[in-house]
């Protein structure tokens, strides 16, 4: 007597479901392996190249106006020139959404000035100029006293800040955006007893960069 078996529809459906599930698992594992390999390659390139932070120097800072109008409102006009350099030999840098402003003893004394986006190749450098102005900016009641004390000392210390985003470029690969900020300290000597201007810095002031 010959034997034969008949599989029920329920059994066939179960078997077909297992095949589909195995296929999806294989696709998932293959995709996961590809992503991990790609990320490992990017990390390896990153560790080998190890990009250094961009370098900034304050070349010039000139104050043409910095006076108080009642009640405690400030008018300012400052011109600055920054030297920017990419120290990397194999990594380019894209700079975007650049904002520059000046502050004095923690108080912002100019509105934000925008700089155009630009690309810096391997070892390239650029000069960046910005006009920082403010009309009727509110300042603390102690502002006039602090300025008067600095006038007696014969020097004024300003902080010039650059905020923005950068992207690293290695070959055709471009990284995501990273926020960075630059802080430059400008020590200026008083040359006028009426209004604080014009006053200039020395050249070559080093700035700190944080990414």
UniProtKB/TrEMBL annotation:
Membrane-topology annotation of the record: Single-pass membrane protein
Pfam families from the UniProt entry: LEA_2
Domain of life: Eukaryota
Stretches that traverse the bilayer: 27-49
Keywords per UniProt: Membrane, Transmembrane, Transmembrane helix
Gene Ontology BP, a term: defense response to other organism
A cellular-component GO term for this protein: plasma membrane
Location(s), subcellular: Membrane
Residue ranges annotated for the Late embryogenesis abundant protein LEA-2 subgroup domain, each copy included: 84-184
Name of the protein described by the UniProt record: Late embryogenesis abundant protein LEA-2 subgroup domain-containing protein
């Amino acid at each position: 007597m010959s034997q034969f078996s008949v599989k029920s529809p329920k059994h066939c459906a179960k078997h077909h479901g297992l095949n589909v599930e195995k296929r999806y698992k294989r696709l998932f594992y293959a995709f996961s392996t590809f992503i991990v390999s790609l990320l490992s390659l990017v990390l390896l390139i990153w560790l080998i190249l190890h990009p250094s932070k961009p370098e900034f120097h304050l070349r010039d800072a000139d104050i043409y106006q910095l006076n108080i109008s009642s009640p405690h409102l400030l008018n300012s006009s400052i011109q600055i020139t920054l030297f920017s350099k990419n120290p990397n030999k194999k990594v380019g840098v894209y700079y975007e959404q650049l904002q520059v402003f000046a502050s004095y003893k923690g108080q912002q004394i100019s509105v934000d000035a925008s700089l155009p986006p630009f690309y810096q190749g391997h070892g390239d450098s650029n000069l960046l100029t910005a006009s920082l102005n403010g009309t009727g900016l509110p300042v603390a009641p102690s502002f006039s006293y602090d300025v008067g004390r600095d006038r007696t000392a014969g020097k004024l210390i300003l902080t010039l800040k650059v905020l923005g985003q950068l992207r690293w470029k290695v070959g055709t690969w471009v990284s995501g955006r990273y926020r960075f900020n630059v802080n430059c300290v400008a020590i200026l000597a008083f040359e006028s007893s009426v209004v604080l201007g014009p006053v200039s810095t020395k050249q070559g002031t080093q700035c700190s960069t944080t990414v």
